[in-house]
């Protein structure tokens, strides 16, 4: 997501900086370490077929802060809106949300559309994850216990094959890896220069945009992105403003049965919501 301009002296140091010992006392170059961790990360994700209920707090300029309870099922996700900007829903807002859930349960087309959107998000996230070992050059920046910090900047030999990949590649920043568990813990960066699409004809993102993503082991052996904060601005075609500003926080994970249907998930969310309301 960010590109630095003056990197010649750093590029020559990227793979010869102090390395973390590998097997049999060998030294692991920084880029190779990232490749190993990302390979394990993707493998673990593909092998994880568990399902969870969790709380999502999403903040965007247009909609404010929305708090949802979400349950994953083999057929897709069921979401129930709990609060808007920290306040409980009005009766009218609750009725509208109930109608949305009912439409999901009764409309196969809506289910397919919702499930496809989820799969697209997962696929895009994995594609960007796969870019990490090749899109950047890395150097070790410190270690604390099982955590290793690496700084990164764009690899000039890497050529992104999509607009999203181009934005991701144009970042400069740092990432933290859990060496013992071979997992990505945190990555953050900023756009070190303006990013133009089609030489600016299709728009641009302003220099200085930032992103931060944190991944947490919320249950032994289970990891998820529990914090994401993206803050970018720019102009699109016809001078429409691009406002890529979103902050997501996930919490309160509870495992649910893997065979749960959409209807059962909706009933569970309704029961949970009623329990919360009774406590107020």
Account of the 3D structure:
- By secondary structure, the protein is of the alpha+beta class.
- The protein has one domain (8-279).
- It is 32% helix and 41% strand.
- It is built from six helices and 15 strands.
- The protein has helices at residues 8-11, 30-47, 91-106, 108-135, 163-169, 262-279; strands at residues 20-21, 27-28, 51-60, 64-73, 76-84, 87-88, 136-144, 147-154, 171-178, 183-191, 195-197, 203-205, 210-219, 222-236, 241-256.
- Strands 3, 4, 5, 6, 7, 8, 9, 10, 11, 12, 13, 14 and 15 form a 13-stranded antiparallel β-sheet that branches. The chain has a two-stranded antiparallel sheet with strand order 1-2.
- Helix 2 (30-47) packs antiparallel against helix 4 and helix 3 (91-106) crosses helix 4.
- It is globular, with a radius of gyration of 21 Å.
Task: Kindly list the characteristics that best describe this protein.
280 residues, alpha+beta, 13-stranded antiparallel sheet, two-stranded antiparallel ribbon, globular
Counted beta strands? 15
Give the helix tally: 6
What gross morphology would you assign? globular
The portion of residues forming beta strands comes to 35-45%
**Terminal residue distance:** 43 Å
For the biggest sheet, the summary is: 13 strands, antiparallel
Helix fraction, binned, reads 25-40%
Could you give a short description of this structure?
The chain has 280 residues and is of the alpha+beta class.
């Amino acid at each position: 997501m960010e590109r630095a301009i003056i990197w010649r002296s750093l590029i020559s140091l990227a793979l010869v900086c102090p390395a973390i010992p590998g097997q049999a006392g060998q030294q692991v170059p920084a880029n190779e370490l990232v490749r190993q961790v990302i390979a394990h990360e993707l493998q673990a994700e593909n092998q994880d077929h568990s399902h969870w209920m969790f709380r999502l707090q999403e903040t965007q300029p247009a909609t404010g802060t929305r708090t949802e309870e979400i349950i994953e099922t083999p057929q897709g996700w069921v979401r129930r809106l709990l609060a808007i900007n920290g306040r409980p829903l009005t009766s009218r807002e609750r009725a509208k949300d109930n109608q949305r859930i009912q439409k999901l349960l009764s409309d196969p087309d809506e289910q397919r559309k919702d499930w496809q959107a989820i799969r697209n998000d997962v696929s895009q996230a994995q594609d960007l994850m796969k870019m990490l070992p090749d899109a950047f050059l890395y150097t070790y920046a410190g270690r604390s216990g099982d955590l290793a910090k690496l700084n990164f900047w764009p690899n000039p030999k890497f050529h992104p094959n999509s607009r999203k990949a181009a934005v991701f590649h144009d970042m400069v920043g740092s990432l933290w890896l859990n060496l013992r568990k071979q997992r990505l813990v945190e990555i953050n960066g900023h756009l070190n220069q303006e990013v133009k699409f089609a030489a600016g004809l299709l728009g641009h993102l302003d220099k200085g945009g930032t992103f931060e993503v944190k991944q947490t082991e919320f249950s032994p052996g289970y990891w998820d992105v529990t914090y994401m904060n993206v803050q970018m601005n720019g102009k699109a075609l016809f001078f429409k403003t691009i406002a890529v500003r979103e902050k997501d926080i996930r919490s309160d994970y509870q495992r649910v049965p893997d065979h749960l249907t959409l209807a059962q998930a909706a009933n569970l969310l309704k029961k949970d919501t009623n329990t919360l309301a009774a406590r107020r």
